[in-house]
UniProtKB/TrEMBL annotation:
Its EC number is 3.1.2.2. Belongs to the THEM4/THEM5 thioesterase family. It is found in: Cell projection, Ruffle membrane; Cytoplasm; Membrane. The keyword Hydrolase applies. It is a peripheral membrane protein. It catalyses: hexadecanoyl-CoA + H2O = hexadecanoate + CoA + H(+); decanoyl-CoA + H2O = decanoate + CoA + H(+); tetradecanoyl-CoA + H2O = tetradecanoate + CoA + H(+); dodecanoyl-CoA + H2O = dodecanoate + CoA + H(+). The lineage of its organism: Bacteria, Bacillati, Bacillota, Bacilli, Bacillales. GO terms for molecular function: hydrolase activity. Pfam families: 4HBT. Residues 46-115 form the Thioesterase domain. This is Acyl-coenzyme A thioesterase THEM4.
């Protein structure tokens, strides 16, 4: 699972987060280590980084079903700051699957199991025409 220049998962993007997402049934997960370059406030992971990781996890859920989507809505609750030096696990799973709309929930927890952030997303399935218009190439 991956896309070379994606800011979150691409391994060829020199400025990217290089998070690797794995499938586990209909769920997906990834680990991420917070470093100094990811902060906003001192020692605290930037909320945009947290949001990007959760958004990506939500996109990987339909990808795991061979569906290409964009995020139509993303609601995030930031529960506890992610500190520099912490490793977090991001997980996401589908809660409702319709023809064009996939509802997804995602969480970010640290190694002690403390909830750092959670998200609910509405992922809109793109038609082949919409994918082509966006320059997204798929094998199928
Ligand atoms: C292949 C690649 C493999 C590897 C990839 C790894 C990289 C992964 C990268 C992942 C990156 C991370 C992910 C990212 O960050 S993706 C980037 C962030 N997201 C965007 O840029 C999306 C921008 N928005 C749009 O493109 C359009 O507004 C969309 C496509 C969302 C809707 O467009 P449009 O309005 O023209 O709609 P439609 O004609 O297509 O469809 C209409 C249907 O959709 C329903 N609807 C619409 N909005 C909503 C809503 N909010 N709630 C509920 N329903 C909604 C609507 O009622 C209708 O239903 P129905 O009447 O048909 O029943």
């Amino acid at each position: 699972m991956g896309y070379d220049y994606c800011f979150v998962c691409g391994d060829k993007n020199p400025h990217g987060l290089k998070a690797k997402f794995n499938a586990d049934g209909d769920s997906v997960w990834a680990s991420f280590h917070c470093e100094e370059r990811h902060i906003g406030w001192p020692n605290v992971q930037h909320g945009g980084i947290t949001s990007a990781l959760l958004d990506e996890a939500c996109a990987y859920v339909p990808l795991n079903m061979d569906l290409v989507t964009v995020t139509a809505e993303l609601n995030i609750s930031f529960k506890t700051p992610v500190q520099v030096g912490e490793t977090v696990r991001i997980e996401a799973h589908p809660t409702k699957v319709n023809k064009r709309l996939i509802l997804v929930e995602a969480t970010m927890v640290n190694q002690a199991g403390e909830l750092k952030a959670s998200a609910q997303a509405k992922m809109l399935v793109l038609s082949k025409t919409q994918q082509a218009a966006m320059g997204i190439e798929t094998q199928a």
